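[09:14] KT: can someone run the structure on this one? pasting the chain below
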Amino acid sequence: MKIAVSVESTNDLTKDLLEKYDIKVIPYQIVLGDETFKDGEISTPDLFKKVDELGSLPKTNAINEFEYTEYFEELKKDYDAVVHVCLSSGLSSSCGNAFRAAKNLNDVYTVDSLSLSTGIGLLAIYARELADAGVAPEEIAAKVQDRVSKLQVSFVIERLDYLYKGGRCGSLAYFGANLLKLRPRIIVKEGKMGADKKYRGTMEKVVAKYCQETLDEFNTPDLDKVFVTYTTATPEMVQAAKAALVERGFKNIYETFAGCTIASHCGGNTLGILYFNDGLCTE
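[09:31] RB: done, structure tokens below
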């Protein structure tokens, strides 16, 4: 049985990984001032430049039910079934639209990732691995949904400007954090983003401490693969993250750029490590 694995453009996988795992993508629309782009048509650095020029954050247009229906029907021309992994229902109404579209079609199954970025990518790769192993599409969707709760998805950010502009950070917290040069950890829980830790110091040192504390807290990782995903980052930040992951024993460390979803919420110099936390404890 030929099964399509599908995601939205918020998955943040590289082009090479999308091709390797045969993962299909439906793009969001990004609205910046009077301009509208398909997600992926504008780079993250260009996004930041336009935000600075306009003084306002970009907006994403939710994908509607009709668009999903057309997209799924097009995939069904080449595949027997579709398993689609959605951006968290806690972050976008698109997920509900995808579920409604799938209900009116045969052999289309949807999964609420309760996640974003390469958290979605991890689920999609898992779905492809199951499909390649001959698992039926309805069982793939069930197994992927069951693994959602095992995701560790978090980022550390340099500044609160974008969270403040987006209404996700109060003015007192914003000015206090900037004054003390605090770098919060943003973690995804139950499908939503929230800050739970704060660090101080240079971003290289912050990234090293963030990675170590995250690996200590979520300490039963599936060591097969992990993502280092960032909006922008210095080579020293990336190296600090990779060094911590190599020391922990991850076999495949993938470096990817975060797209407009993370960028529009968190701004530049935002870096995260993302992995499944359901491996065997080796302590």
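[09:33] KT: thanks! The CA atoms of residues 201 and 235 lie 17 Å apart.
[09:34] RB: yep, looked fine to me
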